[in-house]
Amino acid sequence: LQGDYRSLFRGSGIDLANLREYRDGDDIRYIDWNVTARSDTLHVREYQEDRELTAWFLLDLSPSVEFASDAVSKRMVLAEFVGVMARLLIGKGNHCGAVLFSGGVDRVIPPRGGRRQVLHLLDLLASRPRLVRSPATDLGAILGRAANIIRRHSSVFVVSDFISKPGWERPLGLLARRHDVVAIRLFDPSETRIPDLGLLAFQDAETGEQIFVDTNDRSFRRRFMRAAQQQQDELRAAFSRVGVDCLELSTEDDLLDAFSRFAQLRKQRYRGALGATLPNTAALSPVSAPGVGS
Description:
Elements: E1 10-21, H1 33-39, E2 43-48, E3 54-60, H2 74-90, E4 95-101, E5 105-112, H3 115-127, H4 139-149, E6 155-160, H5 169-178, E7 180-187, E8 199-203, E9 210-214, H6 218-242, E10 245-250, H7 255-277
Parallel strand pairs: 3-4, 3-6, 6-7, 7-10
Antiparallel strand pairs: 1-2, 4-5, 8-9
């Protein structure tokens, strides 16, 4: 199955994409002798290759993803996202695979197509037992392992709450150089605020470490909210530095609305990248349209 759309890759396909002058290293089999004879300059043909898209889901199933302040946990949001996105991709004749990880890589599901693959992924997520405790997630090591697993250019969705040991930015950036990487950040709004409930015991979901805090203390609640906001700002800045788009999925979000927002973001990013490669025609016109160049 070749996919229901043409990719931006050019290779030894059937459809002619472009003609250009010959450069050192070009395959001589693609020289167009007719154009060369007319122009007295060697020209080669470039073809647009039809190929299916391969998508990978890097799925964080560490204990911190089990957090739920209400009926919906971050893990449920993860499963819903995978189900919808995998169905959309496979419905177009593409292939999907997955890497399941907690403290480290737990399982690798090779990419395949068809409805059975979607059901297989969902069954693995539904049947996987809830982890009470595991080693702290080292996302950097997992991304490095994923780079070795995913050889062919693919779309990679990193679905995680990004609660991890530091040092994952560089591996994420390296992965994004070879693949189209999208970060799906899972969060629960209750992780950014603490209600006034008196003396409470809090437990680290991954290490099991416990601490008692007095939630009656207003200054503590304000410090907690500032620290949570700072953490979110740092995550967004990290994604921006490595050039990775991020879709934030809350346990209170409607998945359809989140997809719509993200699709609009990607469309704007694509148009911006396309505009950067086109000549500036505003200077050629005596009157520019309102908003052009803003």
